[in-house]
Every structure is written in C-alpha cells, then in structure tokens.
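Hey team,

Filing this mostly as a record. A colleague (T.K.) asked me to run one chain through the structure pipeline before their review meeting, and I want the input and output archived in the tracker in case anyone asks later how it was produced. No errors, nothing strange. Just documentation.

Input sequence:
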Amino acid sequence: MRTPRPGLRRDQPQRRGHRIDISFATFLRALAAIAVAWCWWRLWQWVLVFVLAAFMAVALDPAVQWLEAHRVRRRYGAPLVVVLIVLLVAGFIGLSGASLTQDARVLGMNDPGFVRERLV
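Output structure:
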C-alpha cells in the first residue's frame, strides 16, 4: 500500500497530475500540417485546374504531333487543336439544342395543359 502524501488523510484520494510533453519538433510538424491543410483549402481549385490542364495536354499531344509531322509548328498546332475541339462541342450543342427546342415546342402545342402543370 502506498503511503499518502503529507497533508492528506488516508481516505482522501491522491491526485495525480498528468503532464503532456510535446517537443518543439512535434509542435513544428503539427504547425506545418496545419499550414499545408490551410493552403490546400485555399488553393484546391487552382490545383484542380492545373491537373486538368496536364491531362488535356497529354491527351491532345498525339493530335499536335500529327500536325507537327505535317509541317504545322507546335506553337500553332496546340491552339488549333483546342479551337477545333471547342468548335465541335459548340456545333454539337447547337444542333442538339435546336432539336430539343423543336421537340419542346411540339410538346407544348400538343398538350398545353402539360406545360401549365409543369410551370406551376
């Protein structure tokens, strides 16, 4: 049985102090982890843009190399490929959008009650 500390009665529980020792290196590591997390929180959109740009560059490289083999400089070939893709996507949206608009117009003419129910 332990002997009680001086000034305490036997029936009084002894208090044990818990002390947590954190070294300076551990404190710096925790601070660095917090700083990295904060930077990631603030910059994740930009990181995502750069990752997407890298994937696009790798994906479009074969087309640019083909243009380069056919005497188109790389500095003109890369933007040309991007512009062509944008035009293709815009054309697809334009064609499908016109068809969808026409279909919606026909649906509205055939059943006006359907349109009123959906808008309310």
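Quick notes for T.K.: Helices lie at 24-69, 74-110, 112-119. The chain has three helices and no strands.
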